[in-house]
């Protein structure tokens, strides 16, 4: 089966491209490498030294005999996109190719506009390409749990059944996202839903939680296949950041009270979820929504878990509750459903002491590459 991975040079995309290739899928990567450019602009670097996309793909081929085609270009350029898709003739498109940082989208007007244009136009172009020439192709699109916000009721998987004035309907779950980035995902979801209803396309929106970890079966095979591991205040995410902070002796940066609760998953489960979604396509005309996380944690609890694991390894780990640069609830109800992927066969890698140990060890191996100036958050949500 032919699969295109858009954003295949990124954190989730690289791991997924290799995983699918390993499982016998014919994989092509589309990426404009803009993420590497944003890192340069921010003066931030992944903790791990990542090879160029060409070197990565070559090494994968040398090691496994499996080839991955590469198309370097911007999916907001429709002409490029449709030509690349015609060269691959995909049966599934996995779409990771967006600007994915909430703080980046909140830097200023330019970054908010860049984020929404990049994400919404890119996805809209994919929908038009599918309508034009690939109407049977299955779109597997990365959304985010943050589309829902933190409502004071249980979060369903995409839809909620409501009774109102004696009538009943199942409707899209209400959305209250917390940044212009998270909003871009809501806009995408609406556009994809519309394209499914009106043009009969098929799509799965995967509302993914925060991903942690770095090694997968494939990216761990060789140093040249190593994945990115972001720790800076713009692209670094909570648990990965805490492990790296612990490894370099920096107090863990819990924003505010730390009662913020989110869905989390191991990157080994991200790649498996992609495989499951592709192998079980949505029906034509169907906009299917899965919540893609395996466990819920509060940020404060995660920091304590990392502190405990670090101390066991002889590290000196402090926790620092700093002023929250974001506007968000710091103590709230949060319960979200996640049964769809489990019922299709996902066997989660739950967060364990051994995973924390391995992530801490991994971070220690590269700790000399860490720049402490990049850790504190510099982007404020407030006026
Ligand atoms: P990433 O920044 O590491 O990778 C994104 C890739 O997409 C980059 O290689 C970038 O160059 C490419 N890209 C961006 N815009 C493009 C465009 N217009 N044309 C072509 N390529 C483009 O991000 P990631 O962490 O791998 O996240 C991938 C997806 O998963 C995103 O959509 C993100 O919103 C979603 N997601 C990520 C997480 C997480 O914790 N990392 C959690 C939930 C959802
Ligand atoms: N946080 C801290 N300290 C830190 C970093 C974050 O307390 O050092 C807090 C934030 O305030 C927030 C929570 O941790 O309450 C999560 O922040 P994050 O930066 O780990 O994740 P987020 O901004 O939500 O974005 C990440 C990815 C994004 C994805 C999202 C999934 O960058 O692409 O969509 O996770 S979710 O959070 O479920 O929406």
UniProtKB/TrEMBL annotation:
Question: Which SUPFAM superfamilies does its entry note?
Answer: NAD(P)-binding Rossmann-fold domains (SSF51735)
Pfam families cross-referenced by the UniProt entry: Epimerase
Name the PANTHER family for this protein. Answer: DTDP-D-GLUCOSE 4,6-DEHYDRATASE-RELATED
What the entry lists under Gene3D superfamilies is as follows: NAD(P)-binding Rossmann-like Domain, UDP-galactose 4-epimerase, domain 1
- What protein family is recorded? Belongs to the NAD(P)-dependent epimerase/dehydratase family.
Signal peptide (residue range): none
InterPro entries linked: Epimerase_deHydtase (IPR001509), NAD(P)-bd_dom_sf (IPR036291)
Q: What is this protein called?
A: NAD-dependent epimerase/dehydratase family protein
Per UniProt, residues of the NAD-dependent epimerase/dehydratase domain are 3-291
């Amino acid at each position: 089966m032919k699969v295109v991975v858009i954003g295949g040079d990124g954190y989730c995309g690289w791991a997924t491209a290799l995983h699918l290739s390993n499982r016998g899928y014919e994989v092509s990567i589309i990426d404009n490498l803009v993420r590497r450019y944003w890192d340069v602009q921010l003066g931030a670097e992944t903790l791990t030294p990542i090879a160029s996309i060409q070197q990565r793909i070559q090494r994968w081929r040398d090691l496994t005999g499996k080839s991955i085609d590469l198309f370097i270009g911007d999916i907001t350029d429709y002409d490029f996109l449709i030509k690349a898709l015609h060269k691959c003739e995909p049966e599934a498109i996995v779409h990771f190719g967006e600007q994915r940082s909430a703080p980046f989208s909140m830097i200023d007007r330019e970054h908010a506009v860049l984020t929404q244009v990049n994400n919404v136009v890119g996805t809209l172009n994919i929908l038009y390409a599918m309508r034009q020439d690939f109407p049977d192709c299955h779109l597997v699109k990365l959304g985010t749990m943050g589309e829902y916000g933190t409502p004071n009721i249980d979060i369903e998987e995409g839809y909620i059944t409501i009774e109102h004035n004696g009538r009943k309907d199942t409707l899209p779950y209400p959305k209250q996202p917390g940044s212009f980035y998270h909003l871009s995902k809501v806009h995408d979801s609406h556009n994809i839903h519309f394209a499914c209803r009106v043009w009969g396309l098929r799509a799965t929106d995967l509302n993914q939680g925060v991903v942690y970890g770095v090694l997968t079966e494939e990216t761990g095979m060789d140093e040249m296949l190593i994945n990115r591991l972001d720790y800076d205040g713009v692209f670094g995410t909570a648990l990965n950041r805490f492990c790296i902070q612990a490894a370099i002796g920096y107090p863990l940066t819990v924003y505010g009270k730390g009662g913020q609760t989110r869905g989390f998953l191991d990157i080994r489960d991200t790649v498996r979820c992609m495989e499951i979604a592709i192998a079980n396509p949505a029906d034509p005309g169907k906009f299917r929504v899965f919540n893609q996380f395996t466990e819920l944690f509060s940020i404060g609890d995660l920091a304590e878990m990392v502190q405990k694991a670090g101390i066991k390894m002889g590290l000196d780990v402090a926790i620092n509750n700093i002023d929250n640069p974001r506007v968000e609830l710091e103590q709230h109800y949060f319960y979200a459903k996640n049964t769809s992927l489990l019922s299709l066969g996902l066997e989660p890698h739950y967060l364990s002491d051994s995973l924390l140990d391995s992530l801490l060890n991994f971070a220690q191996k590269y700790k000399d590459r860490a720049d402490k100036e990049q850790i504190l958050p510099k982007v404020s949500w407030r006026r």
